[in-house]
Structure formats: C-alpha cells, structure tokens
Amino acid sequence: MPYVAVGKENSGAIELYYEDQGDGAPVVLIHGYPLDGRSWEKQAAALLGAGRRVITYDRRGFGRSSQPAAGYDYDTFTADLDALLTHLELDSVDLVGFSMGTGEVTRFLGTYGSSRVRRAVLLAPIPPFLLQTEDNPEGLPRSLFDGFAQAARGDRPAWMTGFLETFYNYDVNAGTLVSEDRFRASWNTATDASAIAAVACIETWLTDFRADLTRIEIPVLVVQGADDRVLPPQATGDRLPGLIRDVQHVVLPGGPHAIVWTHADQVNHELLTFLG
Fold it and tell me: Which residues does the UniProt record annotate as the domain AB hydrolase-1 (predicted)?
C-alpha cells in the first residue's frame, strides 16, 4: 500500500495513505469528516470511466493514515496535501474537496497559488467562515461548536451516530437514498478514526478562509445540497459567488450534506462537465 511521509512524531513517521489509479489528467479527491478516501467510491468510478487519473488519500488521523496527537489545523492539512502533490510530481491537477476537504482546497490555493492546479471543485463547502463574529454576522454561534466538541469528547460513538444522522438527513432519506448498511459502514469508518482527531477537527471548522478565497485565480465549481443541515447554504455556499472571481454555483434540490453519496449522479454530472 502506498504512503507518503509528511512529518515525524517522536520516534515514528507521520504518513498519509493514498491510492493512485488510472491514466490521463490527474484529479485529487479530498474527503470530508469523519470519513476517509473510500467515501469517494462513486466519484472515483465516474472519473476513471471518463479516462482520468484519480488520486484519493486519507487525511491524517483518519482511515489508514497515521493518527498523531497533533497537526489538526488547516495549515498542516494543506502542507500534507502539498507533500502529496510534490511526491507524485503532479502538475495541471484538478483539486476536488468535499466538506472539510474544501478547506484544504481553499487554503492550498490561497497559500501555494494555482501554478500546479487547473480547476477546483468545492462540494458541500465549509468556506468562507462559519464562526459568527462582528464582521461575520452570517456565521454560527461559538456555543454550537463548543457543544459539538463536548459531545465528541463525552461519547464519541454516540456523537458519530448523531452527526451521521444529520450528515445524511437520515430521518428523510433512510431506506431510499441511504441504506442502513451504508449508514453502518460510515459509522464504522468514523469510529475507527483517531479519537483526538475526531474532537480536534471540530475546531478547524471555524477557520476563516475569506482571505484565501480572494486569492483564487482559477475557475471554481461549488455544489451543495439545498437541505444541507451540517453546513447550511446560507452560511457557506450561497456566499461564495461574492468572494471567488470565477465561480459556478449549483444547488441540488433536496440534497443533504452527503451529496457525494445521496446525489452522486447529479454531482458526477456537474463534476465531469466542469472538469471537461
């Protein structure tokens, strides 16, 4: 199995697990919380079928990657992404992020620029800035995220159950767009993640990406479910057309947060059309 080293913790290396499949123009898929690179199975199949080279990887703390005690912030996540791109010598690459992964895409373009990147896709985005402040009244109150972190620390498996119910809009979509088996598989992946990462990543959701967004010089596609309960469109995707200079914004009626699974056909259509 392929790994790339991105640092050290005491006597051990910190490594990211990745998969590199297919030929053609490269596209890197960056997963959301609390899953791993396997959550892209429907998009990876469509992209491989379209003749693309598809790279997925597990964020530090998740999946088959190392689970260090530190490094759970977007500057580090983005440095990890840069290490992977450098290791694979990728150029003219498309970056596709889902949920938390949209933070890596945004921070990477804001920090490292777009010289190696052709296009970017933000699915169920976390930018621009989730925290409610005096200059960001559209955000959400700090107490909400403090409650999330407390719940994750207190009973992580129970927190993951509640989070995934919101992730899939399970009360509405169970038995139709989401099977019990899919929900159980997601829960298993989520609870296999680092207990430290599961809590620490909640704080990263409050990262301010507004300055990064203004530095993006390449075309960007934004796709979000209209019924996203995890990252409500009015606090996230609806605001991006005013902050990104070249953006296409698509809203999927009835879509929950987990559109890469529940609305995979529509997401894949938008993805393949935009990436070309």
Answer: 26-264
